[in-house]
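User: Round two. Same drill as before: sequence, then structure, for each protein.

Assistant: Same drill it is. First protein:
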Amino acid sequence: MEILSMVKKSNVPAVTTATPQLDSEFANRLKDPFENAYMGVLRTNDPLLLERGQGSAELYRDLKRDGKVFGGLQKRQLALVGKPWQVEPRVKDDAKASKDAETLTAILKGFAFDRMCGELLDALLTGLAVSEIIWTVQDDLVVPKRVIKRATRRFVYVQQDADSPAELRLLTRENMVTGVLVPDRKFIVHRVNPEDDNPYGTGLGLQLFWPVFFKRKGIVAWNKLNDRFGSPTPHGKYPRNATPKEKNTLADALRAMSNDGYVLTPEAYATGLWERVERSKAVMPYVRYITRGDDRVRPAHLAWDNLTLPVDDDFWKTHWPPNGWRCRCRVMSMTKADYKRGYTLDRPGAEINPDAPLVRKPLNTVAPPDERREYVNPRSGEVVQVPVGIDPGFAYNPGQARQQALEAQLQGKLNAANPALADAARKAGMRKD
């Protein structure tokens, strides 16, 4: 029995345990069935770059033209570069370590270390940033002379061996596929959000592209759609003393612009307000620009809020409200004493909340520069210069325009009248000029 038992045991194969491979990657990128690495050239994981940018981060460079994107990136870069930095010695109270720290500090400051950090932070948008180091010998030390930011479109990553990391290569005219291997200790690479150890990273451009795209292209397409299938409601204003025939003529002109309807209102409010301001400027020689103060106010109009200028300032010749379609801005006269006080007490939001607290707002007493923009009339093709922040057709003062029109009408009647009668009229108080 013992011999039989030994024979049976000898026929059982021995169980061996395989040693795990802990020093190499098992799920490396070359085994990924969803990625085709042609000639070992790796591709980015960014789906937008693969779909619209042919794998190149150049698609995201155009996002910097957007003001909000550029401002946000600039804020992040300056927040980091603006922080103070210093090199700490590895061993405290050691003379050699302290001297080495001072030497390293001088080396970093010698090649604009802060600027290099700011340039590498472009990887926040594109996912990858590459800079080249130019070395030199200084005081028997090999130190960086300068660092140059290079365009990421000139580089690719190639991985031929599953157990080796991806290699950075430079594309050349002779080799536009795999490029040439870059020297060691020659380039600094900064990447952001490297999903699955992707060497290209994934930048914020993936999240920012479509909002900027729709802001640019969507508005253009919407305007074309409105121009083809709809139009804004024409709004006409007639003088206070307009005759029924003149009103009908204006209504016919508005009706020719749109078949969906039009709005016809008198111009008496703005005209009458200016006339009252003119009459009372001896007591209240200043005019204050006031906005609603909510989120519907145009940014340009919000910049004029609490702007206080003399009645005769040239600003009021073109910026007398309303300054655009559905503009809710207004003006208010101000005494010299209130002007010298330098501030006003307002209740923002009092239209909704009667218990809104009083807020002290300083006066803005400096007139903004007279900036103009070019406007092309889509119907006539006429090119005019319109003040920035004002819709075409609103850059005038109705009260002044009415006064000038009356003076021109009076002057024309005097010129056409009998000379003797015209002289008598002038002597009675009518002006010639």
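Second protein:
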Amino acid sequence: MISLSLPEPFMLALRWGLLLGPIALVLVIVRLRNPSQRARIGGLFAFLYGVSMVFVTHSLAIWLGWWTYGWESLMLNGLPADIVIGGAVLFGPGLYFAFPDTRPIMICLPIVIGLHATIFSSLEPLVSAGPYWFAGVVFVFVTAHIPAIYLAQWTAEDRFLPLRCILLAIMTGGMIFAILPSLILHAMGGSWDLSDRSVLSLTLTAVLLCGTIVIGLSANQMLCIQGAGTPIPLDPTQRLVRTGVYAYVSNPMQLSAALAWVFLGTILGNIWIILAALMAWVFVQGMVRWHHRHDLLKRFPEGWPEYKANVPEWMPRWQPWLPDTAVLVLAPRHRRLRALLSHATALEIRTGEGRARYDSPAEIRGFDGAAACLMALTHINFAWMLVAQTGLLLVLGVQYFRSLLPKRAGAVA
């Protein structure tokens, strides 16, 4: 272990160097190498993911006592804001642009072993290492830095769309549930302390938050599966998605964020977090409507106007609007499911043997088995849609990750 005894002014200079150095590195590399448009978008995604996850993981590290930071200036939740941003730049677009074709684990492993293992615990008063600090460093790299570089690579190469959407969802969740509320609490007063809240209020809030998360994640999933793209306009969908949660509300992710801030603000007793929901409304009125007018309307001139006229932006419909009738092939033994689906909208049930099969002429992918039955349930009403989309998040997620596993030699026959 290297022992450093730098005076405080040098530590302050180091802190600023950890912010300005990575920014300068990225600017120089982009200037010299002139990466492609998709590579630049990947670098931006890596930075945003990094900001979100560096903040979350370092906040967890401080809470667990793995390390703490010194000084009081530019601090948020005990974290130096400049180090959060600098770390997100360095371990996201910085390392990606410097080593675009190298596996992220090979980039980060020497840094973890060679740099952090030698000087991390010797950087007081910048950072004071506690017990198990090295395990914390590994945790941060595994959950924040390495995925950020993978996100940049996969975006630039247009590969692994489901994994990219998962990482973008994690990024968005960190922004919504951690960074923005923390900024508001820091600026307007308040804390994350919930020790005096009743079990009933905490349970109710958790249930409501789970519902809002399902709305946001199911929208992300449908854009990935049926839209063949991500929720971010810089990496857009290739098709107009009108099924699932999008049959009930046209801005489900903005609705999810607004509801999350209302529920978080209520349980924390902070009116300013509740009012942050207005920011989501302003965002929809401005940026989202501009995007709809200048992107979706041009790319989908036939489908978008009809969809916009029938599906509201904020208040979900109780029953779905579906312009095309889907077909569910179901075995005769599923009597209860048939009875439940008897009042479904735009769904034709046919009798057939074997696994259930769901197909919609409006979408590029059909579903088999449990996923087919769950998609059919989204045709009933908004409540059943939430239940079905929760199941689809699990079922389709398991199916995708199983598809990534190496196939056994004996399975190919």
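Confidence is low (pLDDT under 50) at residues 409-413.

User: Perfect.
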